[in-house]
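Cross-posting from the modeling subforum.

Setting up a comparison between two proteins and wanted a second pair of eyes on the formatting. Protein 1 (sequence, then structure tokens):
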Amino acid sequence: MTWEDEALTAVGRAGPGWSFAFEAPPVGRFDERWFVSPGLAASRGTRAVTVWSEPSRTHRPGVFHLSVTEDGEERYAFTVRATSVSGRGSVPAALDPDHLFPRDDAHAERLGGRRALEALAAEFGVRLPRFALGRGRLHSFRTRPWNRPPGPGEGYVTWGVVRA
């Protein structure tokens, strides 16, 4: 079951007072209906920033999600899927998705993710060490899933292909 798939994350420092947990590649696809931000649990007694980025595929638009939680509660969040933006809470102007992912920019998806990470660095003083993520020997462990189980009245189907 996808809600039981634990994320394999690499961890390290991302700046003074900040650490990071990084999952690459993610276990499943991003679906806001089932998504449970790991930031909710990670932010108890502190603050957490969660980012999910999934590039476009042939028949599927890319997704960029950002949420900020503090003391186990979501403060604000937004998700950009192609030209559609959904949000919750009061997103600071520096992280405004309409500014970071302009709809009239042909390269908005690709550049928007980069702009968002740069805005996060400026807003919070946090950076992800690209070399460490790509080639480093970071401590890794299995953490809680990013998806929740079906709720009351919700269905869930899994299927597989078996070669005989």
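Protein 2 (same layout):
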Amino acid sequence: MWTTFAATVGGSAAGLTGLTFIVVAFRFDVVATSQEYRNRAAQTVSLFLTTTVTASLVTLPQPTWALGVELLVAAAASASLLSVLDHAARRGTSQHARPILVVALVVFAAGIAAGLFATVGSTNGMGFYAASSLLGLMWGVYGTWVFLTQAGTDQINAVVNVHDQPGTVPAA
């Protein structure tokens, strides 16, 4: 019953993964020199890849309990990776975890709920899988949009602010 949804979501996530690589390549000068942006790019790709992998798992013909175990492993691995990448992106700063990460991890944990239902042989929890997948797509698109529109603007703003200060000379 969830095969068509999973195939649609998985195909979307795979296509968006390619788009993210293009955006990162387009903004490579900024992403390559910024620890934060490199790790945020890795988070975005991780979201899309997790969504693609879990969609593939849902479309595989297999016992429901096996799907449940696989969804549990995928959700736990993804949540762990997202947390590690967020910590790496914030390393050396006083920033706290971004609220969107906290929300994403909580809702992404819905994949764990889907896995728990499936582990006991029930497909009643697949709505949690749907929520998790759709969140992965939305948050990934948001991350890609940030790279496209905001990467490097903090450096540009710093130069503009220096020019606006009377008596300061910008660095060459």
